[in-house]
Amino acid sequence: MVTGHTGFKGSWLTFLLKELRADVMGFALPPETNPNLFSLLNIESGINHVVGDIRDAVALNAAMQKFKPEYVIHLAAQALVKKSYDDPTATFSTNVMGSVNLLEAVRNCDSVRSLVYITSDKCYENVEWVWGYRENDQLGGRDPYSASKAAAEIVYSAYARSYFLDRKGLGAATTRAGNVIGGGDWAANRIIPDCIRAIEKNKAIELRNPMATRPWQHVLEPISGYLLLAAQLRGQPEKYAGSWNFGPASSDVRTVQEVAKTIVESFGFGSIKISESSSYQHEARLLQLNCDKAHQLLCWHPRWDANKTLAATAQWYKAVMEGADAQSVTRSQLHEYFPELL
User: Fold this and answer.
1) What DSSP element (H or E) covers 311?
2) How far apart are CA 161 and CA 147, in angstroms?
3) Which of 152, 167, 180, 275 is spaced 20 to 30 Å from 212 by Cα?
4) Cis omega (within 30 of 0) on the bond before 35?
């Protein structure tokens, strides 16, 4: 069961699971953008597709009871920082109470053997130091989105200690991933979609915070971590329970301006404009993760460096914009990333 399977990351994950011939149920609201990756990849075909809101506890519990999943990967969320400023109530209700509903549904479903509960790298209290945050660093959040993800982590911790630790046969963990990029994202106020929209309209790419750094990684990097963790939780729940970071090496951190410049160079045209934002909304300038735990205990490592990640992302959009079939392009990149699976 994948919640949030109609989103960008959820679409990549569900498409991969379909390629692996898994029996999948997705539970999510309809896609928010047009175009969207969910529709381009025809993900609805071949899965148990349930349109629902994780804030609807009754519907979520009924779907889980009917499907009886063995694995649950929880991605559904309000995932945009700017939107959290515009509508904090919806952000908290989705990311906190929606997560409570998910945990309740898992608690009431005996078939679940592995739960991967995904929050965000922004759950950490970001003091913008130069080293990466570890899984045991302080949680917090200055903006509503970050605070909602920190709160979701606290909610999870309560459920894990109150209910899941004593439930034999259930492995559960939270994951915090850095900013993901890749083909098929059209969300608002994200650097890659903003670049693509500007290039399509032959306009300059406007950057509000050009020197901000993020742990950019291809969307397949954390997905590979989620699936590896899910499998290990199923086999050794006590060993792999807890929290896990999935992010790129510190050497692969790039500024927003460097990312935009690489996309422009990949397309062979386009321009960049630096705009001084007058917004009162806070934007962190520095954020990265320490992933030593995943490296050493899960043997998970990023497969694509920043250059390969940006090249693959630009190639996906350029190919689809030129008329290539999105399923074929996506499948090709899946096979390149997971040669041992597909």
Assistant:
1) helix 306-321
2) 21
3) 152
4) yes
Residue 64 to residue 286: CA distance in whole angstroms: 39
State the total domains in the chain.
Answer: 1
Is 7 contained in some domain?
Answer: yes
DSSP 249: -
Residue 78 belongs to domain with CATH number: 3.40.50.720
Distance separating alpha carbons of residues 191 and 281, to the nearest angstrom: 17
Q: Summarize the confidence of residues 41-59 as an average pLDDT.
A: 98
Question: Looking at the domain assignment, is residue 342 inside a domain?
Answer: no
Answer yes or no: are the C-beta atoms of 25 and 47 closer than 8 Å.
yes
What does the pLDDT look like over 254-302, one tens digit per residue?
A: 889 999 999 999 999 899 999 865 555 666 667 889 999 999 999 999 9
Chain segment 210-245, per-residue pLDDT in tens? 888 777 899 999 999 999 999 999 999 999 999 999
Structure-token pair, residue 132: 């990466």
* Contact in structure between 82 and 188 (CB atoms under 8 Å): yes
> Residue 91: which domain range?
2-337
Q: Which two tokens stand for residue 157?
A: 């911790």
